[in-house]
Design brief:
- It contains 10 helices and 8 strands.
- It is of the alpha+beta class.
- It has 2 domains: 91 residues, Phosphorylase Kinase, domain 1 (2-Layer Sandwich), CATH 3.30.200.20; 200 residues, Transferase(Phosphotransferase), domain 1 (Orthogonal Bundle).
- The strands form 2 sheets. It has a 5-stranded antiparallel beta sheet with strand order 1-2-3-5-4. The chain has a 3-stranded antiparallel beta sheet with strand order 6-7-8.
- The N terminus and C terminus are likely disordered.
């Protein structure tokens, strides 16, 4: 699926590589259909050097099966899937915008901070997507018990349309998946693991809520919560789960209580569902009369710095 072999996938023209990770690579492509204008999509596949790894190939196949079951505005849509040279690939909705990690870095570079409204809104939308995902059932109506296990800033896509979408089910756990990992194996990015995951213990949907709590804390403070020189030291920080107060960041007691509950070391003390977390954030936003134009912020941060400053003077500041 490299540009020189773009004709190998029928109906799609590969434009360029968007991202490459340890287990997959993603390309920007166009869907070519007679009588219709080209549509941008994202093509995801296993890198060529890993195609012989049955576990990696199986994980992408599991991700595709789960993605095809999902239909929610806060989850990236899997539009199509197939096999090319006996290798699975997924055709995903292309989101024009920035991921939360890139947005945060850009804001830091420009001396900007997330407002409470922006941070709360983003986490409300993530929670809506998780609330759907956590109760997802198969075609027979049997609950799948999905846990995303990688609720992290790079997997939160913020579109210029103002929408928030959670992506990447590569580490997701669900009952009918075919590729299982060894018990106690740490899955996900270390800085956003839950304490139980950092200890190699079984996780459920409440681990995803811990990840939302970390991102909310980091947006409100513009600093990292669990981040050390080595992965081992980071895991130790998470296992201790010592959460600095938000008082110095000017955060009121009500919002800090929401964050603290998300970040409880014991899952029993956290919100027990993503819906409950969403409702708490929504009630807070209503009480504080919070609102934000997230699309404008994303557009502003995508512009070159000088252009951004000029647009802010013209009334385009987010």
């Amino acid at each position: 699926m490299e540009p020189e072999s773009q004709s190998s996938v029928p109906h799609y023209r590969v434009l360029h590589k968007l991202a490459a990770g340890g287990m997959a690579e993603i390309f920007l492509a166009e869907r070519i259909e007679d009588g219709h204008p080209p549509v941008h999509v994202a093509l995801k596949r296993v890198p060529s050097h890993l195609r012989g790894d049955a576990t990696i190939v199986g994980m992408l196949s599991d991700e595709i099966r789960l993605g095809l079951l999902c239909s929610h505005p806060n989850l990236v849509t899997t539009l199509d899937a197939g096999h090319n040279d006996d290798q699975p690939y997924a055709v995903l909705e292309y989101v024009d915008g920035l991921d939360l990690a890139r947005l945060r870095v850009t804001m830091l570079e420009r001396g900007e901070r997330f407002t409470r409204a922006q941070a709360v809104h983003i986490c409300m939308e993530i929670s809506k997507g998780l609330a759907y995902l956590h109760v997802l059932a198969d075609a027979s109506g049997a609950p799948l018990g999905v846990v995303h296990r990688d609720v992290t800033p790079p997997n939160v896509l913020l579109g210029v349309d103002g929408e928030v979408r959670l992506c990447d089910f590569g580490f997701a756990k669900y009952k009918s998946q075919r590729t299982l990992t060894e018990p106690g194996l740490v899955k996900g990015k270390f800085s956003y693991l839950s304490p139980e995951a950092a200890l190699g213990q079984p996780v459920d949907h409440r681990a995803d809520l811990f990840g939302v709590g970390i991102m909310l804390w980091e947006m409100l403070t513009m600093s990292r919560l669990f981040h050390a020189r080595t992965d081992y030291e980071t895991l130790k920080l998470i296992q201790k789960t010592e959460i600095p107060t938000l008082e110095s960041s000017g955060i009121d007691a009500v919002l800090e209580e929401i964050v603290t509950k998300c970040l409880a070391r014991d899952p029993v003390r956290r919100y027990q569902s993503a819906e409950a977390l969403h409702n708490a954030l929504a009630a807070y936003a209503d009480w504080q009369e919070l609102s934000c134009d997230l699309g404008r912020l994303v557009i502003q941060m995508k512009l070159p710095h000088r252009a951004t400053e000029a647009s802010a003077g013209a009334g385009h500041a987010g």
